[in-house]
Amino acid sequence: AAPAPILEARGLTAGYGDLAAVRGLDMVVHPGEIVALLGPNGAGKTTTLLTLAGSLKPLAGEVRHNGKVATAPLYRRVRSGMGFIPEERSIISKLSVKENLGLGRGPVSEALRLFPQLQPLLRRPAGLLSGGEQQMLTLARCLASRPSLMLVDELSLGLAPIVVAALLRALREAATETGAAVLLVEQQVQRALSVADRWYLLQHGALAGSGAADENSVAELAAAYL
Ligand code: ATP
What we know:
alpha/beta; four-stranded antiparallel sheet; binds adenosine-5'-triphosphate
């Protein structure tokens, strides 16, 4: 039997004020799998992720985390094993790389094991790192705490392909080795499908499809994007 989902959306409607940006979503994410949330600009991907993370309250429907209706705010969900990587990088520019890693819930040594590239940069103010290095820092800090669920928004935005590959590989390892569940918001279909097990497609605030990430997905999704 498949393991129980770690994250579920049931009839989830979410948005801003009383304006719904996404309507009636049903989604599940299981331990050990990477699920891509795809869709064009403005489809509602970020709104969905923020609501699943507890940063926005559902307008209707519910979010379940570990089988229970999740009403706790984001910071409390993080204490119960959820990692959240928002679109805007959450580093403190004036603090060093080491100090930024020290703010995480996991050991600095584990962050450096995952991304040894950060070792020579430890004393550097995080604000002086390249975009890719900053995103490695964010991801290393999050993964070092061994989250059981990771919600990740547009990890690859503006980064070089080789950096993106390293970041996605780290997520894949976390899913495969520690059984972490990952929900990944991505605009780039090919990139997302290179690492994901399954995908959901959002269009105009509603689910327009879902499937396993296989050789048929690209064609199916390409039709939807056009
Ligand atoms: P993108 O990839 O461009 O970020 P997205 O799929 O993540 O797009 P959302 O950012 O979730 O889409 O936006 C969905 C809709 O909600 C859009 O119409 C957007 O204008 C609206 N929206 C987003 N943030 C807010 C906000 N803070 N207040 C009001 N409306 C918002």
